[in-house]
Amino acid sequence: MDLISIITALAGLFVIIGIGFAARKYGILNGDRLHLISHILVNVSLPALSIVSLQVQQTATTMGIAGHMLLVAFACYLSAFVIGLVLFRFVPSTSEEKGIFQFMLIFSNSLFMGIPVASAMFGASSLFYVFLFNVPFYLLVFTLGVWLLNKGAGRFDMKKFLLSPGLVAAIVGLVIFLLKVTLPPR
Q: What ranges do the domains of the chain cover?
């Protein structure tokens, strides 16, 4: 792990963020364009990267790490949920605001920032673990997350959840990984 390469990768990330900020501020990117870019990123690019990143050679070590990683990820999300329930009980806010605060505590932006940071620090092979850790995220953000944001208002659409690109990609990637299917080279 080379410190210069990490600093370079993070600097590049912040340059891209700065360009995006400036483009939005000066009207180059308006609401429609931002929506389109976000839609492509969330519904096409990340799911595709998720599937490709789960293309690693299956060994006893990889399988053991995968199982432990999923357990740790679920434990982290469950712990954050319980902490949020206890912590925000004492915060003076409405029920809707508490749901938003809990959502923010539980579901961090570990994917968008995690991908370049993990890749810079540990190489492209680390993306397998990044996406594996986020499999529970995809499952929980569209169930527990939607419930928290709606606070049980009954606005949960099971079909939309089951067909969300992130969840579908996570399941397809795991199935391909478990079946030892190798995709054509990129």
A: 3-178
